[in-house]
User: Fold Nucleotide pyrophosphatase from Mycobacterium attenuatum.
Amino acid sequence: MAASIRDVLPAAAALLGVSGAVDKLGIADRACRVDRVLVILVDGLGWHLLPELACDAPLLAAVLNGSAGRLSQLGCAFPSTTPTNLVSLTTGAEPGEHGILGFTLNIPGTDKVLNHIRWRDDPPHTRWQPLPTWFERLTRAGVEVRAVLPEWFLGSGLTAAAYRGAQLRPTRHGQDYAGQIAVELAAAPGLVYGYTAELDTAAHLFGIGSEQWHAAASNVDNLLTRLVEALPTNAALLVTADHGGLNVPAGARIDLDADPRLTAGVRVVAGEPRVRYLHTQLGAAADVLATWRERLTCRADVHSRQEAVATGLFGAVNPRHLPRIGDVVVICRGDTAVLATGHEPPEAARLIGFHGAATAAEMAIPLIVFAG
Assistant:
């Protein structure tokens, strides 16, 4: 099985001597005899974006030419979206097991759509995401875990589902984030986790390759450079990502709400523009499947729920989580995106950069290991 985002925290735990933790990534070959590990997730730092990023990122350029750190390729979880991959990172589990199967999901038995970024306490996080996290496992093993996160993350359902077991250290906008992380790492042995969304935000709003995206790349590189410089000799830094991405031009966008043939028989629309979950009206699933296959020929893989699960993209799916997957699953090919202007906030249609589907540009992510 290919190396995955799911292997990162078990490898970190193995470095810290946790019984039963397995280092499938060979991190100990680069960083041994450490008593603290720093894990940084750079949202949107796709493998295929590294060469373009490097022109504004001296540290990443050095990583690419082999003069700094150790670079290897991982795969993220499907869908290649942030909520799914945050939870796959922290639980070490496939989406079919932990249940966070997309950016938005229909709550079974209702017509409600749960946006995981806006999720608070309904449904309860322990019911919606029932698996233990590696943060909990580390804590039970006597390893101190601290997560330095933006203060607005605290109190959210996604934070509780993904980061439970960690001591949360809030950071405010404008604070010295690198400095805060360095203080936490120096304070005590254990695992420290950090996250930055700046690169992904710029890709969504302005596009990959835009001036703003390159500026964000420079800022991320400065953050990582400072963390490498502050790394104690008894520490390791693991840098990874949750997904890559691509730009979707105007001509590649399909608005399902502008085509009555695509809305016929559809009860609830969930997922996101690169992966759509269509929950159908009673008895309409076959007709919806046929219509979407006809309308999106060569632009998307359109599956029934059973066919989508059989692809193995979600891993083994817990039967309790099956209803969260649409009766019809639409996985975009190329640079296609399926908008839902009648179901989602208008800003979603104004985005330029997207991710979520199963292309290499979206699924391949880096792992960079620095030893103190």
Summary: The mean pLDDT is 97. The first strand starts at residue 36 and ends at 42.
